[in-house]
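Researcher: Good morning. I'm working through a list of sequences from a screen, and I'd like to move beyond sequence-only analysis. For each chain I'm collecting a predicted structure so we can compare shapes side by side. This is the next one on the list. No need for commentary yet; just the structure.
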Amino acid sequence: MPLALLQRKPDSGLGNIRSSPGSPTRNIDWVLMATVSVLSLIGLAIVYTASRTKFAPKSTTPYGFTFVTRQEIFLILAVIALVVVMSFDYEWWKDHARFLYGVTIMLLVLVLLVGAVSCGASLSFDLVTLKLQPAEFA
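Model: Good morning. Structure tokens for this chain:
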């Protein structure tokens, strides 16, 4: 007998299929969202425990929070990107797939021509404090 949590009913709240097609929460898998959230918090704890002892004996400043703060910032940016991507209807992504594919191919060619060279390989664009790797979009 399968677990009751994993069985999907029309009104269970796990992506309510009876709700309006325009409802933003219609197709959200809340179990997956909760799992990703818990894994993200565990990741923050692991980054903190791995980095705090590296700098603690050398200085009284809390450098152990440097890596955690950076990870938190990227986690917040990822959540913002998630909300932006989820706000578009999947049909929009389907309609613009060829254009986005072309932009990705163009960026991959462009990185070979004008990308920053690191260890003999041209892999990314250096944008002030951010390195953009077009291969991540491919």
